[in-house]
Structures are given as C-alpha cells and as structure tokens.
Design a protein that fits this description.
By secondary structure, the protein is α+β, with helices and mostly antiparallel strands. It is about 35% helix and about 15% strand. The strands form three sheets. A seven-stranded mixed sheet has the order 2-3-4-10-5-6-7, sandwiched between helices. It has a two-stranded antiparallel sheet with strand order 1-11. A two-stranded antiparallel sheet has the order 8-9. Pfam families: Ldh_2 (PF02615). Keywords: Oxidoreductase.
C-alpha cells in the first residue's frame, strides 16, 4: 500500500455509515450510534486496528446471533465504590460504556471506584475508555482480557493468554493529558490482522512459531504465538491483568476463552475492569494538572540521545492524531473502503467514496 492508496473521510460520514450498518442488522438505533461513536474514537486516536476495520467482523457476529441485540445491561453486585456489571452478551462497547459511566458516578461519591464486567465482548481500543473520565478531572485505569488467546506462558508453546491491554489516562493542564495505551504483547493482534489485510510482512519480534523461530507471515499467525513485552515481565503482567479483568469479574480466562475471531455464535464472556480516581478527593485538580505540565516540561526538554528529534510523553502522538483527524477526517485505505463497501452492499447503504 502506498500513500496514494489512502484518503480521508469526514468523521460525520463514517459515524453515520457505521451506525446505519449496525442498525440495519438489528441493533437499536441509540445503541448503534454509541457503538459507532466508540469505534470511531479508536480511529481518531490512531488505533486503526480497533476502529472501523473491525466493523465487518462485528457485523458477522451480530448477524449470527453472537451479540445480544437487546441486552439488559445491569449492575449485579455492588458495595460502595465497587460494582460488577452483567453485560448480558451485548456488544462490548455498550457494556464498557456502562462500566465507565458507573465508575465515574461512584468515584464522584466515594473518591475512587472499581467497576468490572462479565458477559461482555470485544470493546475496541483500551485508551478510548481510559480517557473518558479525564474531562471530569478523574484518572482512568482500564484493563481487559483480549478477545482470543495468542500468547503462550513464558517458556511454553500453548497460547493460553491474550494481549490483555492496559490503558491509563491522566488529566493535564494547558499542555493536555497523558495517555498510556499498551498491549502486554509486542504487538496487538489487530495489527497482525491489519498486516494480513494489507499484504504486509510482520516485523521480527512480534511473533514466533512453535520452535521459537521468528514468524513474519501474518497468514501463518495461527501457527505461532505473540511475544510478550519484556519477556517474562510481560507474561506476568498479562496474567495479572487477566485475573483482575477476567477472573475477578467471573469472566473467561485461559482455556475458557472463546476465539472472537473464529467463532460467531458462542458467548465470549469477556471481562473488562476500570478504576477511576477523582482528583477532587485528593486536593485541587488544577494544582495536580499544573504539576503534570511541569513534569511534562522537564521530560520533554531534557537532553536527547543521538538519533532522537524529540522526547514525547505516552499518548502525545495519539492525542495529536485525534485532533488532526477530527478536524481533517480519518485516513482510510483502499482495502478498508472496499471492505466497508461490501458492508454497504449487504445493508442497502450508499457506498463510501474517497474525498479528494
């Protein structure tokens, strides 16, 4: 793929398209609009493998009955700032949206909250959810069990863990928030799927085969496993996130995990958790945010190593990308447009066209 194969489409056009496609296949209009909004937030942050790229896969599962179209998402356990939500098999974006709303409300009352869920599904980019409390002067810490097992325990060959991401959103002052959004593997599996769709090889260090040799052909991804960040440290982090986002919530982990990419019908019982801290409970938010700006200044203006043009904080690129894409449209490859236009054909929608 070359730069000439990429054009930008307005956010409003893509939101209308995704909402209409989801509604055509049975999702209530309000829910369809919410899911479309959160998918596009992933694209706005530059998490292209978790945005509209996923729409055809979501629709396959929606049509097959793998998502509950009319769920009763509810709090089934709670105490103080703690709550657990039963997602009732809904699309994950709807379940986690409810989790974050619940966590923000409880943090407002208690200063801190922890809300997890079970009977959820794949919910897109982690950073999107960690950032939702930030405009309320709250810190968001989000964790999730991934949608399929692609990581072996350190020293093993059987894929028993997923990419299990973590994201942390921290409010900042005039210079903006800080956002960490990372999988516990060197690459999220969505990047493997995107590389396969675009006909690109994988860099060495992303995957290995059963013998431990580098695997660079994304079409052979099923024969290998993803490598954890930091070797055994990444494996340990993935396990602990799985216990906190999955097992603690009564959700799936290990061999119980359903491969979202290969199974359209079986309930996945995905687990996610979010921790929210209200800055107002610990002092003046403006004081904290000025301190964040000061730390940012110290880091970004410190001495650089040869070969580096700047020192950035986590999330700088994603948040700058969000501003650019909201103003100028979301870049869409020819491959993505073709896939979405197949969706359009199946939903009776007008095809998308590149904006020159």
């Amino acid at each position: 793929m070359t730069l000439s194969d990429v054009r930008r489409l307005p956010v409003s056009v893509l939101h209308h398209f995704a909402s209409a496609a989801l509604a055509h296949h049975g999702l209530p209009e309000e829910d369809a609009a919410t899911v479309a909004e959160m998918m596009i937030e992933a694209d706005l942050h530059g998490s292209d493998a978790h945005g509209l790229f996923r729409l055809p896969r979501y629709l396959d599962r929606l049509k097959a009955g793998g998502f509950n179209r009319t769920p009763q998402i509810r709090v089934d356990r709670s105490k103080g700032g703690l709550a657990r939500i039963d997602g009732d098999g809904a699309m994950g974006h709807l379940v986690v949206h409810r989790c974050v709303d619940e966590a923000i409300a409880r943090a407002s009352d208690h200063g801190v909250s922890w809300v997890g869920c079970h009977n959820s599904n794949h919910a897109g980019a982690a950073g999107v959810w960690a950032m939702r409390p930030v405009p309320q002067d709250m810190i968001g810490i989000y964790m999730a069990v991934g949608s399929a097992n692609h990581m072996a325990p350190w020293g093993g060959t059987e894929a028993l863990l997923s990419t299990n991401p973590i994201a942390i959103g921290v409010p900042g002052g005039r210079d903006g928030p800080v956002l960490l959004d990372m999988a516990t593997t060197n690459a999220a599996y969505g990047k493997i799927k995107m590389a396969a769709a675009l006909g690109q090889d994988l860099p060495e260090g992303w995957m290995i085969d059963a013998d431990g040799a580098p695997l660079t052909d994304p079409e052979r991804a099923g024969e290998g496993t993803l490598l954890p960040i930091g070797g055994p440290k990444g494996y340990g982090l993935a396990l602990m996130i799985g216990l906190l986002a999955g097992t603690l919530n009564g959700a799936a982990l290990g061999r119980d995990l359903v491969d979202f990419n290969a199974d359209d019908e079986t309930p996945t019982n995905t687990g996610q958790s979010i921790l929210v801290i209200d800055l107002k409970a610990l002092g003046a938010p403006e004081f904290f945010k000025r301190q964040v700006d000061q730390i940012r200044k110290e880091l970004s203006t410190s001495a650089k190593r040869p070969g580096f043009d700047a020192i950035r904080l986590p999330g700088d690129r994603a948040l700058a990308t969000r501003s650019d894409r909201r103003a100028n449209g979301i870049p869409c490859s020819t491959v993505l447009i073709e896939a979405l236009n197949r969706v359009a054909q199946g939903a009776g929608l007008a095809p998308l066209e590149f904006q020159q």
